[in-house]
Automatic annotation (TrEMBL):
UniProt keyword list: FAD, Flavoprotein, Oxidoreductase
Cofactor(s) the protein needs: FAD
A GO molecular function held by the record: FAD binding
Annotated Pfam families: BBE
Transmembrane segments: none
Gene3D superfamilies attached to this UniProt entry: 3.30.465.10, 3.40.462.20
Domain FAD-binding PCMH-type: 1-81
Superkingdom of the source species: Eukaryota
Name the record gives this protein: Uncharacterized FAD-linked oxidoreductase ARB_02478-like
Family under the similarity heading: Belongs to the oxygen-dependent FAD-linked oxidoreductase family.
PROSITE patterns associated with the record: FAD_PCMH
Amino acid sequence: MGGGHSPLSRKLGLAVDNVLEIDAVTANGDIVHLTPSGTTSVNADGVVSLTADTDLFWALRGGGGSTFAVVTRFKYKVHEPPSDGFVQFTCAMYYANETHVHAYDIYNALNDFLVTLPPEFGGYVISTAPAQANPTYNTSASPGMIMVAFEIWGGLEKAKPYLQKVMDFHPEWHIKWPGTCQPNVYKKWWDYRQNIHDRGGFGRTYLWDSLLQVDSFNDNFTRVMTEGMGTAYLNKLVPTCTGTLIGGKVTEFPADSSSVGPGLRNGLMALSCGVSWPNSLSYLDNIIISLLQKWNQELVKLGQGVYYNEPSSVLANWKVDYWGDKYPRLLAIKKKWDPNNRFTCLHCVGSDEAEKVPESIIG
Ligand SMILES: Cc1cc2nc3c(=O)[nH]c(=O)nc-3n(C[C@H](O)[C@H](O)[C@H](O)COP(=O)(O)OP(=O)(O)OC[C@H]3O[C@@H](n4cnc5c(N)ncnc54)[C@H](O)[C@@H]3O)c2cc1C
């Protein structure tokens, strides 16, 4: 409901771009069936009505969860895998060694490289700061890393020249994990993906995000990332930033085809950073969050907007950051379908007009 990006987005679009139908229960208890051509409603008395209203279908594809209705079913478009399979390629480099910070050169090279990638290339750039040993946070000393993890739609031939550039870039900085910095070919995406799981047990996590555009990838990006990682290092925090590549097919859907904001529709990367610390140190929450604010704000300034599904909880301009100039239309739809603000959450459409949300149900 907030967009939905993945390593396949640059070839197939966002999750919201692939929704064909939605079933939902509205705030007044009606059951609605939503399609691109209209809305069928069944009210509590069993009376069925059919209209050409597509507003709710539009709002539920980008306008966020917990806001317009309770979705009970999505129908998605499915896609055949490419006949020549998928290429998976992961290559990690040390962020620094004892005497030299490699990160400046790596980010500068990425600034030039990422904008050249064809839409078949999806995936991530993942950066983890170097770490000082800190028994209080359960972290050990580490040189940090910057990793590209590509999932490429189609065969190896087209991918090779791009992958070769990564393989040839300072091979002495590569982390020698088995199977990395070389292409692996799979018949189906799932053959590879089924073995990937998100790590659990994050404790307390502060997350922040910025939607970076093609022109965000310049010296300023290198500076903001290395300064942010440096501040974290000095304070014994170990942030990880995951930049999901967007662009490609995502940019081909008309701006008004869904309610996602322009930053997500036109961007090249959704960059989400996070820092975790143990629950037992909850008294440090405000100190850690304020320490990371400058980095957070500088990253937001570099891009256009913030991804609704992975945002910071501290956002001054959340309406524009999430939805750009679409907010007034979203608010009008909210007022029509949920005039009493039965559904609400932190920084969701109409939430500033709803009664204060109890901390316990902030989503
Ligand atoms: C480890 C991790 C990895 C992630 N990776 C990605 C990624 O690769 N790509 C990406 O796009 N996002 C990613 N996200 C962000 C993810 O898209 C959001 O967290 C998203 O909200 C998850 O949906 P959910 O239904 O599981 O969440 P929930 O937290 O259950 O729901 C999110 C909001 O929607 C509301 N809601 C839930 N169900 C419904 C419903 N049926 N009808 C109406 N409202 C509802 C909830 O009340 C809440 O306000 C990741 C998040 C995490 C934690």
